Amino acid sequence: MTENKRLDKYAIAAALQDIAALLELKGGKDRFKARAYQTGARVVAGMSEDMGEAVLANRLTSMRGIGDALASQIEQLYLTGESSVLRGLKKDFPPGIIELSGVPGLSISKVKTLHEALGITSVAELKEAAEAGKIRSIKGFGVKTEEKLLEAIATHRQRGKGNERLHLHRALQAAEQIRGYLETAGGATEISFAGSLRRWKETVGTIRIVANAKRPAALVEKFLRYPLIVEVIEKMEEACTVRLNEGARVSLVAARPEEFALALLTETGSKAHIARLQQIAGSENGQSKVRRPRARNIKVSKALQGEAEIYDQLGMDYIPPELREDVGEIEAAMSGKLPVDLLTLKDIKGMVHCHTTYSDGKHSVEAMALAAEAMGMKYVTITDHSPTAFYAGGVTLDRLQQQWEEIAAVQEKVKVKILRGTESDIIASGHLDYPDKILEQFDVIVASIHSRYKMDSAKMTERIVTAMRQPVFKIWGHALGRLLQRRPPFDCDVEKILDVIAESRAAIEVNGDPHRLDMEPRWIREARKRKIKFVISVDAHSTGAMNNLKYGVGIARRGWLRKPEVLNTLGAKAFANAVRPA
Ligand SMILES: [Zn+2]
Ligand SMILES: [Zn+2]
């Protein structure tokens, strides 16, 4: 039966990944093709639609990143289990070439010779042969080459390619694909993210995953067959670290049920937090534990009860992962002072900071309103750019009039309340774009800096202070202008600005755009001390970007923000009252 030959999406992704690797080895213009296959592998592994349906309905090419050539290979793989392109490429290379060519100093012709002489097809076999002194006898190799190869294998393992960190959303996407794969593979009763991903750090160095498995070693073996793995960096019986095709590092720890909670806790970190816990556990060893007064009303989901028990044994309340930085959370957990109403995603009732086609957004007012409604929001703020941001299609006064008319018309058709807003530039003098007379007519103002980032600290501080002191109420948008891993926050006296905000008509945005995630948690904590209010925004330039909300909430939680401190947890009327400019 031909049915048996049909491959699932992971096997297809693996084949595409092999094609990419071989094309990369061919070099030249094939490297561009290689990139297309690499993207294809990622898209296929992440497909939510049934592969068979997509193939039969000819829908592959409608997926982003899949062109005709790629689609025909995917179809072949699905229907016959083979790819003509892969078959052709394999003829050009010795077996094991993909793995072996990663070892520095091993050219394609050397790999060929090694295969012909000793039948070597993997790095492990190469290492074994080198250690046994078999390489030196091959013509053109010698003792020195043998030593160099052993060295290269050792450093190659530690070095890896690119130690860059992933943006949070990319890390989450990769982690979710792996979770999907492991769930399909079976053998784990629970799969949890850990590490900086679980703590919602802005960027992730290693995607850490902990799985609850009765047979850990078998699960690790299954994971190692994940198609997007291009390199195994480290492998132990119950854990491994690998690199994926696009550079991400992933570590999997498979733990038996009785060890799962502790493994999850330690893999989640942070290092400083775990070190403190170990210290406390050590000092309490053998003593009868004194029970401290605790709040005991922190809600813990069933899945996390194991972790909660460990905290309980240490005499403290359960500490949510976002707080585990050793910046006072342990003391708070011991004295029952952790925030009990830490912000959660479901607390958010309004989608704040949305762009439309009136400036640089992709979608219409109506599309944005409907998308917010579909996510259960009670209100949405349309905040397109102001005229100074001409490069982003800032909205001039007559266009603004037009937008307000459109908003009124759309409002007739949708349930979600649409608030008329602006993302007004804070111009160099510290004043807001649009005349006061206009500003007062908005329902909500986000005030942001989009130009002249390089002022000296004193001037920048003065600029923002002036803006915050404007009589209209405003939300300070993407506060310090950082773009993660690309542009640092600008220079200014943040504490002084926070002092001014505390006595002005202003709130601060936590921007959920995963490239920004601004303002950062340490400054949120400083602002909280001054009783400043926040909004969690999406800075959405498309309906899809409304999913940024979860990142904003994650950052807010790391800043210890409580529900009552966040304005868009209010209902539509209360929110409109709280942010009304005049
Ligand atoms: Zn902006
Ligand atoms: Zn914006």
Question: Can you list the ligands bound to this structure?
Answer: zinc ion
Amino- and carboxy-terminal Cα gap: 73 Å
Write down how many β-strands occur, each being a DSSP E stretch of 2 or more residues. 14
What fraction, in percent, of the residue positions are helical? 40-55%
Estimated structural class: alpha/beta
Strand arrangement within the widest β-sheet reads 8-9-10-11-12-13-14
Low-confidence runs of at least 5 consecutive residues: 286-296
User: Helical segment tally?
Assistant: 24
The major sheet is characterized as: 7 strands, parallel, barrel
Output the radius of gyration.
28 Å
Q: Give the percentage of residues in beta strands.
A: 5-15%
- The rough form would be described as globular
Let me know the average pLDDT: 90
Question: Main attributes?
Answer:
single chain, 582 residues, alpha/beta, seven-stranded parallel beta barrel, five-stranded mixed β-sheet, 14 strands, 43% helix, globular, binds zinc ion
Give the topology.
Blueprint (H helix, E strand, L loop, with lengths): L8 H18 L3 H16 L5 H6 L11 H13 L3 H9 L4 H4 L7 H11 L4 H9 L10 H18 L6 E2 H18 L4 E5 H4 L4 E2 L1 E7 L3 H8 L5 E7 L3 E6 L4 E7 L1 H12 L2 H14 L20 H9 L15 H6 L15 E5 L10 H10 L4 E7 L11 H15 L5 E9 L10 H4 L4 E5 L8 H12 L5 E3 L17 H9 L3 E6 L9 H9 L4 E7 L8 H10 L13 H8 L3
Parallel strand pairs: 4-7, 8-9, 8-14, 9-10, 10-11, 11-12, 12-13, 13-14
Antiparallel strand pairs: 1-3, 2-4, 5-6, 6-7
Helix pairs in contact: 1-2, 1-4, 1-5, 8-9, 13-15, 20-21
The structure holds zinc ion (2 copies).
